[in-house]
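Bug #77: duplicate submission created two jobs. Keeping one. Sequence:
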Amino acid sequence: MNYALIATTAFIAVVSTSAFSLPSTSHQTRQSNKRSTLNSAIAASVPSISSPYKTLPWNTQREEQRKARRLTIENAQLFRELGLPEDATYEDVAETTARLIAETELLPKNEGIKKKIKIEIARDEIYQIRLNERITGVRSEQEDAARVSKLEEGGLEGL
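Kept job's structure:
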């Protein structure tokens, strides 16, 4: 009987103190997760409002100039990596990259592989930039190539 009385008293003491204690950290964590999920859902549902000043003619012109300047600087850097002028032809780029890759074979294994990868990345980026320029109409190599092919096929009468 004493055991039952002691066990019951201990149980009542534990239950009564836990009812008035602070919530556990796992409960707090669950609540904060619910709040963050709710906040992210609200943020996702609110449409973003673009600035009306972005569409002003002088702002759009300035932004286009910035983009053109950035592209020019990036292009110049790629050509400097290969040691070529910016007006180099496709054949010049291919020849130079082949020569530089052949030179990397003399280097130690890891260093040679790294330089070879850098050269190939620069070459591929140059080709991609040139392709994008031809597609957008900035570069007129298509017209020049058409004229050369007509000249080769039909001589001066082909032009």
